[in-house]
Amino acid sequence: MCGITGFYSTQQDFSEHDLREMTGAIRHRGPNAEGHFLDEICGLGHRRLSILDLSEGANQPFYSNNDRFVIVYNGEVYNYKEVANQYGITPHTTSDTEIILEAFVKDGIHCVNYFNGMFAFAVYDKHKKELWLCRDRLGIKPLFYYWDGSKLAFASELKSLLTLPIAKTLNKPAIAEFLHRGFIPAPYTIYQNIYKLSPGSWLKISGTVLEEQKYWKITENIGKEIISDERQAMERVEELLLSSVKYQLISDVPTGVFLSGGVDSSTVAALTARQLSHPINTFSIGFKESRHNEAPYAREVAEHLHTNHHEFIVSVQDAKDLVETMLDIYDEPYADSSAIPTMLVSQMASKYVGVVLTGEGGDELFHGYGMYQWADRLSQGWLKLLRKPLASLLAVGKEARYQKAAELLEYFSEDDISSHIFCKEQGYFSYPDLKKLVGEPWVNGKGFLSKSSLPPIVENRLLTASETQSLFDMVMYLPDDLLTKVDRASMQYGLEARVPLLDHRLVELALNISPELKNHGGTTKYILKQILYKYLPSELFNRPKQGFSIPLYDWLLTDLRYLIDTYLSDDVIERHGYVNKEIVSTMKKEFFAGKKYVYNRLWTLIILHRWLEKNT
């Protein structure tokens, strides 16, 4: 795991000083070494976090044996030994970097189809003067790039690009996207001309010609037939889980597991413990507010697995100290407040290990979210006919659950149902909300950058509503929220986070498992739980799903109230002029009067206006 930077320009628009500034801006991603390559057209920069082959011989930029190609690379290709055998590569190091580059020398960009891992890399052909950028299938590792039609720059984090002498023009439609989702979806960012390279994509620049292609599409892995046999599904999922965990334990530095006590992280911890002869390090975090404290559950799992367990109980002050940092490390508006505990547990784990395994992906692959059940409900014909009068009836109810149900029924159109369900489940602003808050031009069904919230078209078979909702999450929510959260939070402390449940082989299998085996008789993540219960008692998990969250509602009423007073004042709202001041004022009054469910909307507005105050 590392940080990469670079640029390409036939007009020498950038300098060695620019390259060093870019690379220095992400030194936290790689505290072990820094390196640069520069010729008259291309510059490449690298910050190294040493995980495999700790010697200087594996430092980057790394040059091919024939000295024609040079690479900077972030991530891990776990099956690099198999790739070396496949291409007949005799390595001189024990680093996967060398294998990736030599495979590229032999097979060009097509070699990525054989990689199993998380990666973002840049390869420069010194003879042809061509630069290739590539990102892994699921978007586990980040890659941003600037392109204005003549020159290109790229980096692992947005902050590197912001050091360059380029136009930093605000991408105003992205504000509506952020308020709707809590993040800005790829390929867009908060700035015009700066983009996220989409997951499963590569990009090539030669001269002033830019080409981009998808080498892996999630929908192309959805088959005509589904696996409905429970035993067959369990055997195949467990086999791939064990294989994935075994791959992702490959490391030359100590390894641990983030353990929340939930199904996903406990599965990863159990399968990790099975494959090691020594106790694994596990890390959990809890809150002094008991209703948000899952630490006791993690502790019970750790005791059953006989792990070397580390626990950190967070106070309001601990989190408050990190709020300002959290709001800065993501570089653009980003509203997932669970980034705060993720940063805290990453900070703790980095004192003991260099690599952690996490449980991201389980809910999306095996239908763990309540919104998947809502998707199935809203797809029923009778409910479509009665949704508007039913919404009006529920809206008069005083309980928050009735208010939420009413808003779920008031979706903008069938085309945007997946996005609507997501935003309401997260407590953000729907299309009707945004028409009032930011104005008609941005949200008339065409003003959104992403054009439509529908997942890509699936041709092989008709998906259920819950499968469609899950597909939406895998295309948008996973890469642009959850994986972004884990990457920035862990790399802030020089810690590599790996995600065994998102091995692309397991993803491709899960796409073709019957939804009846994912939500079975009301039991969510059914097939994954049956595997887990082979290793741990089911009684440990007989509780409602809670999630990795902070008591944000309580804190905004008390210790973090200053964020509302500072960033949602009339003066700040009027100075930037992106949202309706009266609506914000009404929301604040409702919140302080006890209308709990608006707190996440206020949080997104705080994030937005703090970002605007600091960056415009």
Automatic annotation (TrEMBL):
Keyword terms of this UniProt record: ATP-binding, Glutamine amidotransferase, Ligase, Nucleotide-binding
Reactions catalysed: L-aspartate + L-glutamine + ATP + H2O = L-asparagine + L-glutamate + AMP + diphosphate + H(+)
InterPro entries hit by this protein: Asn_synth_AEB, Asn_synthase, ASN_synthetase/amidase, AsnB_N, GATase_2_dom, Ntn_hydrolases_N, Rossmann-like_a/b/a_fold
CDD domains from the UniProt entry: Asn_synthase_B_C, AsnB
Annotated EC: 6.3.5.4
Pfam families: Asn_synthase (PF00733), GATase_7 (PF13537)
Keyword DNA-binding in record: no
Annotated metabolic or biological route of this protein: Amino-acid biosynthesis; L-asparagine biosynthesis; L-asparagine from L-aspartate (L-Gln route): step 1/1
Domain Glutamine amidotransferase type-2: 2-208
UniProt superkingdom: Bacteria
Matches recorded under Gene3D superfamilies: Glutamine Phosphoribosylpyrophosphate, subunit 1, domain 1 (3.60.20.10), HUPs (3.40.50.620)
GO molecular function per UniProt: asparagine synthase (glutamine-hydrolyzing) activity
Family to which this protein belongs: Belongs to the asparagine synthetase family.
Name of the protein in question: asparagine synthase (glutamine-hydrolyzing)
Lineage, opening ranks: Bacteria, Pseudomonadati, Bacteroidota, Cytophagia, Cytophagales
Gene name, Swiss-Prot/TrEMBL: asnB
